[in-house]
């Protein structure tokens, strides 16, 4: 039986390497309910929720030199270069004090996926994929009322296009490795969460 200390550290060539954090990628179209369900998972399962979109919006507000570039990308529904987003994720992971993370809205394209793997050497335990029709997602986004500048019909359509062209291939990548846990997100919030809970409590997800 491994002790807590042994579990937390691994001897590699005489140096002590830190244990890698557990990461679950939370993906799905714009408005599919990723943020809503992550809040529930945090309450029940003790994960730290990191939304790539929220981190980018906070970076704009902080007055960062990348702020204008990020703002322009978000207004166009485009994907910010991985280097920027990964740095924000790494910083948030380091500052969290936790060792298990829901990374929401990332990786959004092949560049995000490959760069994260390359830089962090972290493989997700699994990928939660919230599946929902565009019609329902559009309805949700147009009534979200959180003051997001990208929740207008013109940008929403661009975000849907980017999701289909760039984000779905990432989900297919993980699906071919049997890492995707697909959830029907077109149901009421509580029902969706019942399905989410079933994933997190499944004996097949022991690593989590
Ligand atoms: N199952 C659901 N049924 C109805 N409304 C929902 C459901 N899940 C979330 N919503 C509502 O839909 C809106 C979008 O949800 P949320 O912000 O969680 O989506 P998201 O996937 O994080 O979107 P984005 O990619 O734009 O950040 C919110 O107003 C939320 O309250
Ligand atoms: N990996 C990511 C995630 C998000 N963005 C940009 O932020 C916008 C909003 O993201 P949400 O997940 O909060 O909807 C998104 O449309 C992108 O412009 C990104 O570039 N890279
Ligand atoms: Mg969100």
Automatic annotation (TrEMBL):
Cofactor notes: Binds 1 Mg(2+) ion per monomer.
Cofactor: Mg(2+)
Cross-referenced Pfam families: ADK
CDD domains (alphabetical): ADK
EC number, UniProt record: 2.7.4.14
Quaternary structure and interacting proteins, as annotated: Monomer.
Name this protein carries in UniProt: UMP-CMP kinase
